[in-house]
Specification:
Helix content: 40-55%
Structural class: alpha+beta
Largest sheet: 5 strands, mixed
Strand content: 15-25%
Shape: globular
Length: 681
Amino acid sequence: MLRQIFALLILIFSLSAHAADKDFSSWRKFTEGKFVSETMSVAPGSSASVGLYVTLADKWHTYWVNPGDSGAALRLDFKNSPGVKVKAVRMPVPERVLSGPLISFAYSHEVLFPIEIEIDKSVMPGSTIHIEADAEWLVCDEVCIPAIDTLVLDIPVTALEEVRPSPMFGTFQKFWARIPAVVPQFPKYFDAGDSVELTLEATAKGQKFVEFFPFRGSGVTNEKPTAEFEEGILVLRFKKANVARQGEDRVGVFLYSQEENGEASMHAVQFGEPKWSFTEAGAASDASGPELWWMLFSAFLGGLILNLMPCVFPILSIKLLSILKISSQSAHLVRKQNLGYVAGVMISFLVIALVLAAMRSAGHLVGWGFQLQSPVFLSFLSWLFLVLAMNLLGLFEIDFINAGAGGRWTRLGGFWGSFFTGVLAVVVASPCTAPFMGVALGFGISQPTPVLMAVFLSLGFGLAFPYALMIVVPSALWFLPKPGAWMETLKKIMAVPLLLTIVWLLWVLSQVSGPVAMIAAIGGCVVLGLFCVIQMPRKLKVSGALLTLVAMLLFIGSLKTSAKTESHAGWMPYSESMMAELKGNPVFVNMTADWCLTCKVNEKLIFSDADVLELLRKKNVTLVMGDWTQRNDEITRFLSRFDRVGVPFYVLFSARNPNGRVLPEVMTKSSFIEEIKNEFP
């Protein structure tokens, strides 16, 4: 806190002291940024390097990806460039800058941020590639000024043998040498209470510790650690940061000198990959052309198949009953109800897309089904399903219709009732991932917001398509039986899957937030049931139930979520450090969650089968399970590595596929055995 106050005082006093004698009206007086290329041209189907080259006036500096106690990192928002894919933006090793008690990690004089790109094979020699991005970087001396500019670069395309170094080639080599080498192994980590120790394996003779730069959220302060050699092993001791996220990210950049033949050279090593990528500031790939259309079609197919998944069945049963009830009435009424359902589905998917985009912009790791990691949402959903089940059983009437208001309200009730059913269908579909759906969602979440929205709308249209078809062709209802007294019996039968869903939701709640939350939610079910059946004025019923349930939701939301300790026989719990240790070994990774019905079906019918387990044992395959029931950023990062945002998700690692081979979300015992035999002959 003292550092933040001191930084604020420095800023206030520096502004008042120097505003009169210095002109800070334009950032261009103190810095310049431009795109440059390592080569004079690029070749079709090749990789190349461009870069953001920033020069700074004397005493001014700009910041590393972890700016330190103050400052802001570089931001780049690339525009779509036909024929060009931006792979990564690299960050050179910074310098430690001291301003009183404040510590920053920054660059002075000049810095080049190398940008790795790929040129599509379809680009023809003689043409030109165009790279454009909105850039923002902060420059500071006595005050800080944001530099905001739109940068462009046009590079000729030639045959590979004609590619020559550019005048900036030497500068590229200088800063490429300052890019840390990434090693997958983490240093040994020890939490000593008010400090943290990182232990590095025995170093080669002549190595000396120089510096350590922690990444954001590493849980340690930005002060330089103390370094001690103990029996040839380097131990770094850090002061622990007083922040809520401490200990989540144990990676950083280690700088050391190596003396050989009397000459010392500098080396930088980055331990593991951080939670974010160096391209998170907007280095998006080209999402245009056939790939985009295929992803939109995949999302549509995934949504269509979602109608067949078990998680959606309870709500579709309600929709089926409403269609049966009106099937013999006018085509206009059929269209109106189906239009309400389609609107509910499409608007719900649009809202989810906007929420995901907002969370992504705020720096959160997000995924499909994230709402079912919330104990408040799970409790509310179980109570909502109880009301619907009691309605089907005839114990409570959900009446959108005001009998004294005439036919206008009756028609309104039909539309909004169907709209509400569409919203519910989307809500309960979130535990499921259908074929084609996982790839499309993973693609969408990595793209700009308009593409993300297009993918989600395509998914929603797939889910709503059967009912959209009935809007266009109402006669498609000819195959349904005529309504009659038998529907009362069917309503009671349809209540059964809703009641079973409530049991499942309460069990998931116990896994997410513990037994106390589950007991509170069961208490809410009892209270809600009493208010539904008790004889009292309607307004008193509604107000009493709402007040009671809101109080219970506040209580459930206040409960602290405890980490799950449940173990699964034969399965190792997923962690990034464990995967690093298992690198090079046969591994099967099962990403699952208690709220994922498809996951549980596969685990019961396939992964618990004696023949399957025996085959995996014979092939020496290590079984790793990642439980995503509660929020887990390590699992979210693993999913995003394969462009996925939801579970189930299955990956096989082998000598043939050391980077992993993704398996289908929906499998049978025989198809899974075939996959194992093909991967490990």
